[in-house]
Design goal:
Blueprint: E1 7-11, H1 15-26, H2 30-33, E2 35-39, E3 51-54, E4 57-60, E5 65-66, H3 73-80, E6 101-104, E7 108-109, H4 112-129, H5 132-136, H6 147-160, H7 170-184, H8 199-218, E8 242-243, H9 249-257, E9 264-265, E10 270-274, E11 294-298, E12 303-306, E13 308-311, H10 315-321, E14 329-330, H11 335-343, E15 345-347, E16 349-356, H12 363-368, E17 374-377, E18 399-402, E19 409-415, H13 417-424, H14 427-442, E20 449-450, E21 454-455, E22 468-473, E23 486-488, H15 495-502, E24 521-523, H16 536-553
Parallel strand pairs: 1-2, 1-13, 2-9, 6-17, 10-14, 13-24
Antiparallel strand pairs: 3-4, 5-8, 6-7, 10-11, 11-12, 15-23, 16-19, 16-22, 17-18, 18-19, 20-21
Length: 565
């Protein structure tokens, strides 16, 4: 009798799943000894990577940046594939655009003397929360804010307010930092020429603008839910941040290209995963595959048996999958896994692209009227001073700017409640909201007074003539295959929960006497990596980790990078 090959099924054809499949399939001897399948619920590969086209330009609906190029496996692959260069323009090809124009509600341009102190404060507060100021030796006695004392006082206040020691949020720390800054720079002259804006209101609004940007970086809809201590565990690769000229999808396609036709099965949504945590082996099953410990049920009613399943679905899908009798796993996951899934945060971040109608066919005139990198400073949504027609969801985004210099396609980022609101809205409503907001900031009739009395006309003061004609938005929150964008460590959670996410099932017996089939369910994806969560390279490392775990289990020679990532 010929021994059956162990069958490995990978659920999800995103970065983690395809990295695992690529690693397994390319391992020497693997093809002769194992059976490999990749099942994907959607009609495309890539998961939260989705390169697309809009307004004649290449854009990314999901993952956009390579976060640091030094040491990044994604950057290395992109170099090897020559994906970093293209004859055609692409999103953010200029990097982060310099010299933003910062406009306050009412059409007032804010100069560097108003914006820079608050921007610098915010950056230093975030750097300190991430451990950078101490590591770099930047903290000095000349600082307006004593960051060490600030952290101690903020933590104490959190304890008094019922947060418990060590439960400080990034949001609470930031706001304490703003208060401390104000206390250190008293008796400043009140600003002039900014309509109903006072200095305090403007400082609050500029700070809120940076908070809104930070929310999109982390996916935490409210920074008061983002754990302070966990920020120091998150690791950024050194070097600049870049986008991929030939699209992020070029990386995905390269990983998938080595797999034979038919190995990746699209439209195969898994509805149930049955596994055997208790130490008994089932008898022969009716479909003739023999006794394999895991059974996957699909939306079309079909089933597949497996020896090992690598689950790479998003944390959002896992959160939905642990609720009630209709959960994804049967029997339910052990309590340590459920608690980790429940405590970790998983937010929604959406991108909104709008196309600007060319004002003229003459290229020279078009260049003279280019849209700026516009930073937007708003009154609070509940303020009586606010412009009534600017919608609340626009007040929660920080900027709108061309995806590269002189592009007619503009981009804005949304997180949390407004990101979900965006998904429900009709295109006309979105275009109207964007148009009203931009016109109120850039309209010629506002004459662009610079705060403190100086008139400062903006180069692109064509707000009243601008027309937005087309819109495209991502919908990560309501897509049942994702249910959000990426993970964060919430208050009450920790890096240990990310480690728990990565542990395979069933748990190994301490005395080694466990007769359960081992490594039935393995977990990969960005939310399973302690120091690189929320990133594509975190997903990549996790896929390698789980592939290597299986290769080591079967004593494959040369598996030296097992679990090191």
């Amino acid at each position: 009798m010929v021994a059956k090959k162990p069958r490995i099924v990978i659920v999800g054809a995103g970065m983690a799943g395809l990295t695992a499949a690529n690693k397994l399939y390319n391992s020497t001897g693997f093809k002769d000894l194992f059976e490999l399948h990749v099942v994907e619920g959607g009609n495309r590969i890539g998961g939260r990577i989705n390169t697309s086209q809009f307004g004649g330009d290449q854009i990314e609906m999901g993952a956009t940046w390579i976060h640091g190029i030094v040491g990044s496996p994604i950057h290395k692959m992109a170099q090897e594939l020559h994906s970093l260069e293209s004859d055609q323009p692409w999103e953010c090809m200029d990097g982060f655009l310099d010299s933003p124009t910062t406009m306050a509600e009412g059409g007032f341009e804010l100069g560097p003397s108003m914006v820079d102190p608050i921007s610098t404060l915010f950056k230093k507060l975030m750097d300190f929360s991430q451990g950078k100021l101490i590591e770099d030796g930047v903290v000095s006695s000349s600082e307006e804010v004593d960051y060490v004392k600030l952290r101690s006082r903020a933590s104490m206040a959190s304890t008094i307010n019922g947060g418990g020691f060590g439960k400080l949020s990034v949001g609470a720390f930031l706001r304490r930092g703003l208060d401390a800054y104000r206390a250190s720079v008293k008796d400043r002259e009140e600003i002039r020429g900014c309509g109903n804006w006072s200095r305090k209101l403007l400082e609050d609004a500029i700070f809120a603008m940076h908070e809104n940007t930070q929310r999109t970086y982390t996916s935490a809809g409210d920074l008061s839910t983002l754990d302070y201590d966990a920020e120091r565990e998150y690791i950024m690769f050194p070097g600049e941040e870049v986008t991929i000229a030939k699209g992020y999808l070029s990386i995905i396609e390269a990983l998938a290209s080595v797999l034979p036709a038919g190995m990746i099965q699209l439209g195969r949504k898994v509805t149930k995963i049955e596994w055997q945590p208790d130490c008994h082996r089932s008898g022969e099953v009716e479909n003739g595959y023999g006794s394999r410990p895991v059974k996957l049920h699909f939306c079309d009613g079909s089933v597949m048996l497996a020896d090992h399943v690598i689950v790479t679905v998003s944390l959002g899908v896992l959160k939905a999958g642990i609720n009630g009798d209709s959960g994804l796993f049967n029997p339910p996951l052990p309590s340590f896994k459920i608690q980790a899934i429940s405590r970790l945060g998983f937010g929604v971040v959406n991108k909104l692209f709008v196309q600007l109608s060319p004002g003229s066919d003459h290229e020279e005139e078009k260049l003279n009227n280019k849209f700026p990198f516009l930073q937007m400073v708003f009154h609070r949504s509940d303020s009586e001073l606010r412009h009534q027609k600017i919608p609340w969801w626009m007040r929660r985004t920080a900027s709108i700017c061309p995806i590269y210099n002189n592009s007619s396609v503009l981009l804005s980022w949304f997180a949390g409640k407004e990101a979900l609101e965006l998904e429900k809205m009709k295109d006309e409503e979105i275009l109207n909201g964007v148009s009203v907001t931009v016109k109120s900031l850039l309209s010629k009739s506002n004459s662009h007074k610079l705060c403190n009395g100086n008139v400062n006309p903006v180069e692109s003061s064509e707000g009243s003539e601008m027309k937005f004609v087309k819109v495209l938005k991502s919908k990560w929150g309501t897509d049942p295959l994702f249910r959000g964008s990426y993970s964060y460590v919430g208050v009450g959670s920790s890096g240990e929960d990310l480690d728990s996410m990565a542990k395979p099932l069933p748990e190994s017996s301490k005395n080694g006497a466990n007769s359960c089939p081992p490594l039935q369910i393995l977990f990969a994806g960005e939310a399973t990596h302690r120091t690189h969560y929320s990133t594509t390279h975190g997903a990549y490392f996790s896929g390698l980790r789980e592939a290597n775990r299986l290769l080591q289990h079967y004593n494959f020679v040369g598996v030296s990078e097992l679990l090191q990532h």
